Amino acid sequence: MNDVGKFLVVVGLVIALVGVMLWLGIGKTWFGRLPGDIHYSRDNFSFHFPIVTCLIISVLLTILLWLFRR
Q1: Taking a C-beta distance cutoff of 8 angstroms, is the pair 48, 66 a contact?
Q2: How far apart are CA 62 and CA 25, in angstroms?
Q3: Residues with Cβ within 8 Å of residue 10, at least 6 apart in sequence
Q4: What is the pTM of this model?
């Protein structure tokens, strides 16, 4: 049960940190606008898919979870 508690605390801290960063506006200029993110606009239609941003978040979460599993 100790590992589950550690995991929940870390997840809670990460969520709080991301919330504070978004609240302060940190990352507003680059988050979701990295090279490779797909953005398509036409007349009154706009499509945005931040694929590179998703990949970076996935890699960071994978490394973080791998470190806590050890």
Answers
A1: no
A2: 25
A3: 64, 68
A4: 0.58
